[in-house]
């Protein structure tokens, strides 16, 4: 278990659209929640949804089978790995998360500040 089910930030029944709508309504930089990924892929079980600068970012959370750990985004060398999804959230409440806009090729960063409860 990734340590998500009892957490206030885990939106178990939220789909992508519901999550994005809720974050737009919150309209606060650093608002976030975690939802199940749309694809139901065991290698990418969850998605971190973050609001920043009037945009919503969907950041995949990968499960790394070989180490039984979790990481954010696409695989990269030297990436941070965590023992649970809760650890990812706790870490990025203290340290900034880099948000990459692949369409505009820009980078922003924010901490996870406001839990959005929906669904």
TrEMBL record:
It comes from the Eukaryota. The keyword Transferase does not apply. InterPro entries: Immunoreceptor_sig_adapters (IPR051751), SH2 (IPR000980), SH2_dom_sf (IPR036860). Residues 9-116 form the SH2 domain. Gene3D superfamilies: SH2 domain (3.30.505.10). Pfam families: SH2. GO terms for cellular component: cytoplasm. The keyword Methyltransferase does not apply. One of its GO terms (biological process) is cell surface receptor protein tyrosine kinase signaling pathway. PANTHER family: B-CELL LINKER PROTEIN (PTHR14098:SF3), SH2 DOMAIN CONTAINING PROTEIN (PTHR14098). This is BLNK protein. The lineage of its organism: Eukaryota, Metazoa, Chordata, Craniata, Vertebrata.
């Amino acid at each position: 278990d990734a340590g998500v089910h009892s957490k206030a930030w885990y939106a178990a029944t939220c789909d992508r659209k519901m999550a994005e709508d809720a974050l737009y309504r919150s309209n606060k930089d650093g608002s976030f929640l975690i939802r199940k990924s749309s694809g139901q892929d065991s290698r990418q079980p969850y998605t971190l949804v973050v609001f920043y600068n009037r945009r919503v970012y969907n950041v995949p959370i990968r499960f790394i089978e070989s180490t039984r750990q979790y990481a954010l985004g696409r695989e990269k060398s030297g990436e941070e790995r965590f023992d649970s999804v809760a650890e990812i959230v706790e870490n990025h409440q203290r340290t900034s998360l880099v948000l990459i806009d692949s369409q505009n090729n820009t980078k922003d960063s924010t901490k996870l500040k406001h839990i959005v409860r929906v669904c």
